[in-house]
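Key result, reporting period 2: structure in, sequence out.
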C-alpha cells in the first residue's frame, strides 16, 4: 500500500512558541488563536499543554488545520510559506510520506522536549511608523491614527505597556536549552525594557543563543545595542523594507530612506548580520523591481512573502492591466539574489501576476487608501501613477 503524502507537516509546534503583543500564546507568528494568554498560562506551560500536543499529532498525521490558513494562502499563491521556510531551516523536506516526519521527530529527539528551542516574543506595539498594511496591535502610531479617524477596534487598549506579565513570559523561555530568541515590536529598538532584559542574560546563556531582532531600519542602534548583539552566539537583524527610496516612505509611512541607509552602513561597519524582509502587497507590487534591483546590487540577503491580511491589500487585488505591468517589470529583474530561494520565489510571483486578478475587495481598498491619504496628506499616485484612473472605478 502506497504511503500517504503529508502536505501539512510543520516543525513549529515541536520547537517554537510565539507570544503576541496582547499576550496570546501561539505555536508560530502565522497562527492566530486566543485560547492561551500569558495572564493565565506562561509560554513554557503553553508549549507543554495538551492543546499543543494535539496540534503536533495532527501535523504528524497530515491533517489540515483551519488556524494555518495564512500558510495555505501563501502556498497556493507562491508554493512557499512560513511552514515551508521553517521546515527548510531545519533541513526537513516538504510533501513527504507520513513515516518520514515520524522518523525526523525521533532523529531530532523532539518528541519529549519540555522547553522550546525557538521563542518569538512580540514585546510592545511602540513604534515610530504606521505602515499601511499594519494594525493597531503592532503599531502605536497606527493605533493613534485609527483613534483619530474614529475606526479603532479597541480605542482603550494599551498595547505598548511592558508589564510584569511580559517580563515573566520572556524570562520563562530564556532557559539553558534555548537556541533562538526572536524579539519583535512595534519597533523593537524603541523599547528600553528589551535592552535591559537582554543585558541581564548571562554571557554563558547568550553564547548558546541566536538573537533575532526585527526593526524598520529608521533607528540606528547605539553602541550598547552593538555590544548586546555581539554577546550572543549570532545576531540577525531583520530590516523591514517594502519599497525603494521615497516609495518606502509612502508604504511604510513616514519612514526616512536616508536614516535607513545610515543604519545599514552602521551595521555593516560593526559587522552586524542583517537581512532585508519585504511584504508583497498591491501597495508595492508595481515598484518591487526597483527594490529587488537595489537588493541585488548591494548583495544583501533578503526574503519576501505575499501578504494575506488585510485582504484588501493582497497583491492580486489590482486591475488586470496593472498586474500585467507588474509582471512585465518583474520579468526584467535579474535572478541574482544572495538568498537563492528568492530566485524561485520571483518566478512564482510573476506567475501570480499572470493569473486572473481578484478584485472583490477593490472598493474597500479604494476607500481605505482615500481615507489614509487624506489624513496623511499624501497620495498613492506618487508610487503608482497608473492607478489613478482605477480609483473608485468598477474593475
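The corresponding designed sequence is given below.
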Amino acid at each position: 500500500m502506497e504511503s500517504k503524502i503529508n502536505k501539512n507537516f510543520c516543525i513549529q509546534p515541536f520547537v517554537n512558541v510565539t507570544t503576541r503583543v496582547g499576550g496570546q500564546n501561539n505555536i508560530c507568528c502565522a497562527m492566530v488563536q486566543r485560547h492561551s494568554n500569558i495572564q493565565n498560562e506562561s509560554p513554557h506551560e503553553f508549549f507543554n499543554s495538551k492543546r499543543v500536543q494535539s496540534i503536533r499529532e495532527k501535523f504528524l498525521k497530515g491533517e489540515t488545520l483551519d488556524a494555518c490558513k495564512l500558510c495555505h494562502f501563501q502556498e497556493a499563491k507562491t508554493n512557499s510559506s512560513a511552514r515551508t521556510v521553517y521546515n527548510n531551516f531545519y533541513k526537513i523536506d516538504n510533501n513527504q510520506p507520513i513515516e518520514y516526519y515520524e522518523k525526523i521527530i525521533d532523529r531530532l529527539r523532539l518528541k519529549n522536549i519540555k522547553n522550546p528551542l525557538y521563542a518569538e516574543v512580540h514585546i510592545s506595539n511602540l513604534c515610530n511608523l504606521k505602515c499601511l498594511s499594519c494594525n493597531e496591535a503592532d503599531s502605536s502610531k497606527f493605533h493613534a491614527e485609527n483613534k483619530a479617524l474614529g475606526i479603532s477596534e479597541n480605542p482603550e487598549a494599551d498595547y505598548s505597556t511592558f508589564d510584569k506579565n511580559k517580563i515573566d513570559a520572556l524570562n520563562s523561555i530564556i532557559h539553558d536549552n534555548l537556541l533562538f530568541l526572536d524579539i519583535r515590536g512595534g519597533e523593537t529598538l524603541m523599547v528600553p525594557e528589551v535592552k535591559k532584559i537582554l543585558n541581564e542574560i548571562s554571557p554563558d546563556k547568550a553564547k548558546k543563543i541566536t538573537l533575532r531582532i526585527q526593526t524598520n531600519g529608521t533607528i540606528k542602534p547605539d553602541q550598547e545595542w552593538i555590544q548586546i548583539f555581539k554577546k550572543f552566539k549570532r545576531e540577525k537583524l531583520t530590516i523591514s523594507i517594502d519599497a525603494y527610496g521615497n516609495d518606502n516612505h509612502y508604504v511604510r509611512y513616514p519612514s526616512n530612506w536616508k536614516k535607513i541607509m545610515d543604519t545599514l552602513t552602521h551595521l555593516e561597519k560593526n559587522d552586524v548580520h542583517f537581512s532585508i524582509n519585504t511584504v508583497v502587497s498591491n501597495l508595492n507590487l508595481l515598484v518591487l523591481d526597483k527594490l529587488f534591483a537595489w537588493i541585488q546590487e548591494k548583495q544583501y540577503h533578503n526574503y519576501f512573502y505575499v501578504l494575506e491580511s488585510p485582504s484588501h491589500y493582497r497583491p492580486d487585488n489590482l486591475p488586470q492591466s496593472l498586474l500585467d505591468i507588474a509582471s512585465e517589470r518583474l520579468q526584467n529583474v535579474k535572478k541574482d539574489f544572495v538568498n537563492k530561494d528568492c530566485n524561485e520565489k520571483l518566478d512564482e510571483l510573476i506567475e501570480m501576476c499572470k493569473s486572473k486578478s481578484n478584485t472583490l475587495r477593490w472598493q474597500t481598498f479604494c476607500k481605505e487608501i482615500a481615507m489614509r491619504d487624506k489624513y496623511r496628506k499624501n497620495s498613492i499616485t506618487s508610487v503608482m501613477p497608473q492607478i489613478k484612473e482605477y480609483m473608485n472605478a468598477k474593475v
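The CA atoms of residues 28 and 220 lie 28 Å apart. Residues 5-107 form one domain. This case is discussed further under Risks and Mitigation.
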